[in-house]
Design goal:
Blueprint lengths: L14 H9 L4 H7 L6 H11 L2 H9 L11 H5 L8 H14 L6 H13 L6 H5 L6 H15 L4 H13 L7 H16 L16 E4 L3 H5 L1 H14 L3 E2 L10 H5 L2 H18 L3 E4 L3 H14 L10 E4 H11 L14 E3 L3 H5 L4 H11 L29 H18 L3 E3 L3 H14 L4 E3 L1 H6 L14
Helix pairs in contact: 1-10, 6-7, 6-9, 7-9, 10-15, 11-13, 15-16, 17-19, 20-21
Protein name: 4Fe-4S ferredoxin-type domain-containing protein
Keywords: 4Fe-4S, Electron transport, Iron, Iron-sulfur, Metal-binding, Transport
Pfam family, one: Fer4_8
Length: about 450
Amino acid sequence: MPEGILCNKQVVDTKEKLNALLADKSGKQYYAEMKALDVDTKALAATLEKTCKSRLRTWLEICAHCGMCADSCYFYLANNKDPKQVPSYKIQSTLGEMVKRKGKVDNDFMHMVMDTAWSKCSCCNRCATYCPFGIDMGVMFGYVRGLCFAQGFVPWELKIGSGMHRIYNAQMDITTEDWVDTCEWMAEEYEEDWPGLEIPVDKENADIIYTVNAREPKHYPEDLAEAAVLFHLAGESWTVPSQGWEETSLAMFAGDWGACKIQVESVYAAMDRLKPKRMVVTECGHAYRATVIEGPYWAGLKSGKTPVESFHYVEWVAEALRTGKLKIDPAKRIKEPVTYQDSCNYVRNAGLGDCAREIMSYVAEDFREMRPCREHNFCCGGGGGLNGIGLYRQQRNTALKVKRDQILATGAKLVVAPCHNCWDAIRDLEEVYKIGIRWTFLKPLLLSMVKVPEHLLPQDE
């Protein structure tokens, strides 16, 4: 079967296609069609010839099979050190074989590649830290995901996600009207307790343009309100754009590079339109990576930088505490043991570990590091889109064991996790393993302990 009705090589770019996928609960028809999906070997060979260039081919050739990458991989550790979970094996048996066979592979092979690319690697890039040659299997598996997507071998949820980005410029079906209404609703809901609170939309020349994860307005609108209150208390001049407000990229997880470009250009257009001094990204790791680190290249910006200077939320919080824009009440600092989850995407891949420690020095009296930590920390267990893929839920749950053991070793009962994927993984970890922990973003934590200036105090009834 060259093409299925739902599982095919086409991008999802109309609401009709998207709704058809959404109606297929758990992807039952989608995965049934995938079993018969033909591989376009000529197109795959042409793509490899055109895009698998010197860096990737050199990495495949120079791998010494030394095994030093093995212990760097949490999938390997969580699966009883299964040799088939060694990063070098995983990439050589997938991309390496594709290159050797010049794209002449079949359906069974592509199923194996899909399973490996999405359930045995979260593209956390930790392996590159320990490879003596600097080979980065995370980067390579990102490339492999793109090959799979073009052939139609991509998890159902991520095919939906990339379609959402093409249609709504967001990972969920939130329209501009929905977004603006949510901003107005949250401002009205919280204004009574916080005099003068606003969520300014499309304010030009603000100091900060704030962008979010679509899950916030869809499922956690209070997160937007909490961000507004903290900007309000800090005296910031800020705004949100009516269009281009969504930072995340399920398209990046899916390997749909065309949708990645569409998504990130919508954010950059908002920057160009509103001319803020800088952008602040919400508490999301992959959103930061997609828009700030990878995005400029998808958009073809020769500078390799976003149109305006861009910060992750932890950078803004550290700055606000350091400069006194936000002040912590010493009596309200965290007294119990607390630890911090270093997100792969803004700590290992963007070097923001110091910001995290600076924040913890202000808010916690008994801060306990995970071991290892900072850029050496393990992935939460659900990165790279793995949290949201039902087909691979058991593989994700097994992978969570490494993070479980890291947290248990600290003795902490509270985990600060300023990243949506990390927050979700740690929540699910507790549901699966019941180790007796709590988890939190920064915003509610800060609101529970920040000093409120007299003129901004909530009004009594």
